[in-house]
Give the backbone structure.
Amino acid sequence: MIASVHPLRVEANLDPGLTRWMWLVKWILAIPHYVVLLFLQIAFLLLSVIAFFGILITGSYPRPLFDFNVGVIRWSTRVSYYSSVVLGTDDYPPFTLKDVPDYPIRVEVAYPQRLSRGLVLVKWLLVIPQLFVVVLLVTSGWNACRYIEDYSPFSSGLIGLLTLVAVVVLACTGSYPRALFDLLMGLTRWILRVVVYATLMTDAYPPFRLDMGGNEPNAGVPQPAGAG
């Protein structure tokens, strides 16, 4: 059975030339990104509140706000992929909200032409079961819903543990275990689906399944949502 197309699309390539020990300092190298992302995240939250009222009144997510928020998620995902979650590349993340086609991880979210006005009022309630899953995956505490703000070298949850195991194997053998990469990408994809639903960017409820691997499990490709 082919999985249905989800509005969120995450594609990633594991860097075949990962150095054994660079992962120890990537979180330091990424500090300039953390500073910028702190302000971008504040803007993300404020614009999400504005978008809530836009959806409630008009039934649509204002496109400029949508593009900006997709850009913040995209930027944050690149930084975490480099410095804290998966650690699947040594390529330094670019300072941009836009899609970078040649970067090892890419995130796209299809723009919804219409969103349910009634659903926007209850998504916070409907997403609670998914947040329980995210709590287990990301952290031992209730700050899990702040996933895109978590820039520590490793989270305290399952993802952090698996990432640590992967880079220790890399340090010992010079090779990143492919099975762990596929699993970590499935977990990352799951969390990002929860993020875009909880922040009102789609009405598609996150499926309770692991779509593992660097490539999406289906052939459907949503239209890119650019950000300036």
